[in-house]
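We recall that each integer encodes one residue's backbone shape. We quote one record:
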Amino acid sequence: MDHLSHRTITQIGKYKLERGDLPPDILLALLRQMLRLRRMEEALIREYHPADEMRCPIHFCIGQEAVPAALSMLIRPTDYMFSHHRSHGYYFAKGAPLKELFAEIYGKETGANGGKAGSQDISHAASRFYSGAILAGAVSIAAGAAFAVQHKRLDSIVVSGFGEAATDEGAFWEVVNFAGLKKLPLVLVCENNRYATFSDQLKRQASDNIYERVRPFGISAVRIFGNDVVQVYQALKSAVDHARTGEGTVLVEAYTYRLNGHVGPEDDSVNNYRSATDIEFWKMNCPIRLLEEVLTQTGELTPAARERMETVIAEEILGHFAFAKANPFPECPDWRRSNWSEASPLADKLLGSAEESQFDHCQADARLEPY
């Protein structure tokens, strides 16, 4: 594991998860959280077609459950979390109500955003969770929030979840520079799943080890095998504690893999951008499977306990679907009020005191020489 990268990772073969010193209750809770997220995503995929009642694109996170499961046990309600377009895992991690996520995907007025945001822009302000489709947007806005938290001396930290493609953007490196300089209470979580849509990171960047490149900016950084939920939990706990005690920003780069297509529920294997060998490696080393094997071997997870866990999760998901389908669609909105506020006294005052010539582009154009 000393030279972990996407060039070498499949050479591991069958990964052996070590339970470390985590107690059984933590390990079982991690398994339960991963299963809840996996079964939720699988159920949404099954329901998407042929009913076609979900009218928004969805970026599923099947195979990437370890990071959200660990975060869900480490983040406080007073913390802030920002996510990229593959948002479900982070929404789940922040403890935002899942029934409102389902309703949002169905476009219902009881959804987290009144049915107007869909999956990849879903937010839940009461839970302090925000996602967005702009690449590296989650990183940029999270840095601003972390600066505000620091300035106001709030008892909070900020977590930003994103994929390795965000590091293709200049905005990411501006954030790293600023966060390192100011020692912001920020945890940057890069789920490096290798592909930006169909584009291999190793064809876009000379190196896939992002954690090495952020260190010169004053950022503490670590790389981990992102399907080892024990290692993920330990790394994220250390990162959260580091940020919470005022020691500055941390980046955790978790090498993982999405087993589903880029955007679902359709399978995108027709594009032939991933090898069968790689897919088989990641299926064999599914984060749920790795932890289950250890807990079964030690007797901490019995078949009966596993079945009870699945039953409770299935009932929970049925309840989310019932809530989403039973509620109405929103009324046709006033798009004017949806895009700006009529109550802007400061802006009105500033504009009222400005001369028209200060922002009249026609006058500036008049000074230009004709062709």
